[in-house]
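Bumping my old thread because nobody answered last time. Still need a sequence for this structure:
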C-alpha cells in the first residue's frame, strides 16, 4: 500500500479499512471493529487539549508518511534475530513478531502436553478471537480504536485452570524500517485462568534508519487465584515511536506484578490500566525509564479499585539527561464499594541536566471512607553529599556518579521475576549511564 501523506491520514485510513472489512470475520468481532473505526473517524487521534495528553505533542509522530507493512516482506533469520538485545536467552518460550506479523520460524513453544496454548489470531475468524478480542480494551482513545479496527496480527495465550508455565514466555516485537516508514499494529490477548501461574514479557527492539510507529494493544485477563508476572521492555532506537495500551482485569484473590522498563525509543507512550473486579486482588507496578538526547516518554497508569480488600503498590523511577522529557501520570480510583483498599503510589526522578524535564502528576480519587491511600512524587538532581562521600573513599567523581545512578536503577531491576533478564539489563543500563 502507499504511504500516508501528511494531512491525508483519514483518506488513507479509509482505504485500509475498506480492504480490512472484506476479510472473513465473525459477526460480533466485525461489529466491534466497525464501532472502533467509527469512533476513530469521529474523534481522531488524541491531542494536547485533552487532560490525559496535555504534555504530549503527537504531531511529529502521526504526520509521517507511513506505509502498511506486508506479511513476510521482512524475513528475519535466526542469526540476525540473535543480534538483538535479549534475543539469545535460553530456557524460555518465545514468540517473534516482525513488523506486526508473527514469524513462526523464530518461535519456540512447547510440544505435546504443556501448561498453555497459543492460538494465532491473524485470520480473525476463530472462536477464541470472537470470545476475547476487544473485550478488555476497545475505544479508550484514538490509538486503541485504530488498533481494534485495523490490527495486523496477534496471538491468544491461554493458561488453563491450575496450569503452571515452567519457563518465561517472551514476545519479541522487531521493527524493521529500512526501506519505508511503517505503521505497525499487533494485538495480543493473555488469559490466565483460575489458579494458574505464568511469567510473561514483551520485548521491543528495532533496526533501520527510517522512522516507525508501533501502535500495540495487549489485553490481559487474570482469573481468580491466578498469579501473572508481566514485563514490558522497550529497547528501540531514537527513530522508533511506540504507543501502547495494556488493559488488565483481575478476579478475586489474583495477583499481578508488572515491570515497565523503558530504555530506548524516540517517542514512547505507555498506558497501563488495571480493573480490580474481585475481592483481595494484589496489583504491583514497577517502572524504570532512562532518557537522553531529545527522547520523550509518557507513562500513564490507572488503577480502578472496584471491590473491597484490594492492594495496589506502584513505584516508578526515572533518570533524565540532555534535553529529554518525561511524563508520569498515575491515577488511582477507589470506588464506593471498595472498602479496606490499600493503594500506594510513588514517582522518583533524577535529572542529570538543567535542560531535562519531568512532568509528574499522581492522582487519587476516593469515594470510599475506610481506605489507606498515599501518593508522592519527587524530582531533583543527584545527591552531591553522596558523591562527596564516595570520593572521600578514593572513588573518582564520574565513577561515583555512575555507582549512584546504577544503584538507583537497580532497585527496579532487582524486582524482576525473570532472573535471566537481570544481569543483561544491569549491563545494558550501566552502558547507557556511562
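Sorry it took so long. Here it is:
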Amino acid at each position: 500500500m502507499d504511504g500516508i501523506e501528511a494531512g491525508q491520514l483519514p483518506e488513507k485510513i479509509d482505504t485500509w479499512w475498506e480492504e480490512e472489512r472484506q476479510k472473513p470475520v465473525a459477526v460480533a468481532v466485525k461489529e466491534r471493529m466497525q464501532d472502533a473505526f467509527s469512533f476513530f473517524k469521529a474523534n481522531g487521534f488524541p491531542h494536547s487539549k485533552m487532560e490525559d495528553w496535555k504534555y504530549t505533542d503527537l504531531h511529529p509522530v502521526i504526520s509521517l508518511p507511513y506505509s502498511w507493512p506486508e506479511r513476510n516482506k521482512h524475513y528475519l533469520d535466526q542469526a540476525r534475530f540473535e543480534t538483538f538485545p535479549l534475543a539469545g536467552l535460553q530456557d524460555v518460550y518465545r514468540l517473534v513478531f516482525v513488523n506486526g506479523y508473527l514469524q513462526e520460524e523464530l518461535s519456540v513453544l512447547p510440544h505435546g502436553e504443556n501448561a498453555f496454548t497459543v492460538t494465532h489470531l491473524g485470520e480473525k475468524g476463530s472462536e477464541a478471537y470472537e470470545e476475547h478480542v476487544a473485550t478488555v480494551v476497545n475505544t479508550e482513545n484514538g490509538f486503541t480504536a485504530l488498533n481494534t479496527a485495523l490490527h495486523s496480527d496477534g496471538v491468544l495465550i491461554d493458561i488453563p485452570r491450575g496450569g503452571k508455565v515452567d519457563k518465561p514466555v517472551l514476545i519479541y516485537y522487531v521493527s524493521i524500517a529500512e526501506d519505508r516508514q511503517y505503521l505497525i499494529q499487533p494485538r495480543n490477548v493473555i488469559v490466565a485462568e483460575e489458579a494458574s501461574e505464568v511469567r510473561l514479557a514483551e520485548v521491543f527492539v528495532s533496526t533501520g534508519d527510517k522512522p516507525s510507529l508501533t501502535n500495540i494493544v495487549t489485553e490481559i485477563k487474570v482469573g481468580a487465584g491466578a498469579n501473572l508476572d508481566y514485563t514490558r521492555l522497550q529497547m528501540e532506537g531514537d527513530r522508533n515511536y511506540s504507543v501502547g495500551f495494556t488493559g488488565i482485569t483481575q478476579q478475586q484473590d489474583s495477583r499481578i506484578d508488572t515491570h515497565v522498563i523503558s530504555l530506548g525509543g524516540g517517542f514512547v507512550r505507555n498506558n497501563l490500566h488495571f480493573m480490580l473486579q474481585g475481592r483481595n486482588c494484589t496489583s504491583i507496578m514497577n517502572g524504570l525509564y532512562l532518557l537522553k538526547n531529545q527522547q520523550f516518554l509518557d507513562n500513564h497508569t490507572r488503577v480502578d479499585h472496584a471491590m473491597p480488600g484490594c492492594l495496589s503498590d506502584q513505584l516508578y523511577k526515572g533518570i533524565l539527561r540532555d534535553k529529554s522529557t518525561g511524563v508520569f501520570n498515575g491515577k488511582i480510583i477507589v470506588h464506593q464499594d471498595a472498602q479496606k483498599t490499600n493503594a500506594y503510589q510513588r514517582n522518583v526522578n533524577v535529572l542529570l541536566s538543567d535542560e531535562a524535564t519531568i512532568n509528574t502528576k499522581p492522582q487519587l480519587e476516593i469515594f470510599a471512607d475506610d481506605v489507606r491511600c498515599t501518593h508522592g512524587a519527587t524530582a531533583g538532581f543527584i545527591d552531591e553529599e553522596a558523591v562527596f562521600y564516595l570520593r572521600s573513599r578514593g572513588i573518582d567523581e564520574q565513577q561515583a556518579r555512575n555507582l549512584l545512578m546504577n544503584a538507583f536503577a537497580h532497585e527496579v531491576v532487582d524486582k524482576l521475576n525473570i532472573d535471566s533478564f537481570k544481569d543483561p539489563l544491569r549491563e545494558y543500563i550501566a552502558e547507557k549511564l556511562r
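Residues 9-278 form one domain. Let me know if any region looks off to you.
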